[in-house]
Amino acid sequence: MEIVINSCYGGFGVSINVLKELYKMKSSCIKIVPIKEYFKDYPDKNSIIKFHEHLKIKNNIIMLDDKDDNTIRVNKDLIKIIKKLRKKADGEYAELKIIKIPNNIEWAIEEYDGFEYITEKHRTWN
């Protein structure tokens, strides 16, 4: 199994190039949100737009669908594009890396200040 993680301090994010490719492919890992809906809770649209990497097409914003982060991280379309674009796939504060793990492992993404790593799931009590 292949999983996409961020391998530097900062945080997971993809470039506009990745979003363009995913949009062309009509991939299931993106969502299309009308601009008015996207900005409805933000009074200062100009400042907030600087902090979000997205692709504007017509009156819509195209972005990764973040409803289930683990599903995105193993999405075949996303992995294919990251392999193709390499460093051009990295978001503003990201260095994307594809990690291979055995298929039968229950896994989770852990992070420290945006630097991510894969762990095998286990039980924890406190």
From the structure above, extract its key features.
single chain; 126 residues; alpha+beta; 3-stranded antiparallel sheet; two-stranded antiparallel sheet; 7 strands; 27% helix; 28% strand
Characterize the structure shown.
The structure is a single chain. With 126 residues, the chain is an alpha+beta fold. The chain has one domain (2-120). 27% of the residues lie in helices and 28% in strands. The chain has five helices and seven strands, in the order E-H-E-H-H-E-E-H-H-E-E-E. The strands form three sheets. A three-stranded antiparallel β-sheet has the order 2-4-3. The longest helix is centred in the first third of the chain and has 10 residues, at 16-25. It is globular, with a radius of gyration of 16 Å.
Discrete helix count:
5
As a percent range, the share of helical residues equals 25-40%
Global morphology: globular
Model regions low in confidence, pLDDT < 50 over at least 5 residues:
none
The proportion of residues in beta strands is 25-35%
Order of helices and strands: EHEHHEEHHEEE
Give the strand order, joined by hyphens, for the main sheet.
2-4-3
* Largest sheet composition: 3 strands, antiparallel
SS-based class = alpha+beta
Radius of gyration: 16 Å
Q: Helices, strands, pairings?
A:
Elements: E1 2-6, H1 16-25, E2 30-34, H2 35-38, H3 45-49, E3 55-57, E4 60-64, H4 69-73, H5 76-85, E5 96-100, E6 107-112, E7 115-120
Antiparallel strand pairs: 1-5, 2-4, 3-4, 6-7
Helix pairs in contact: 1-5
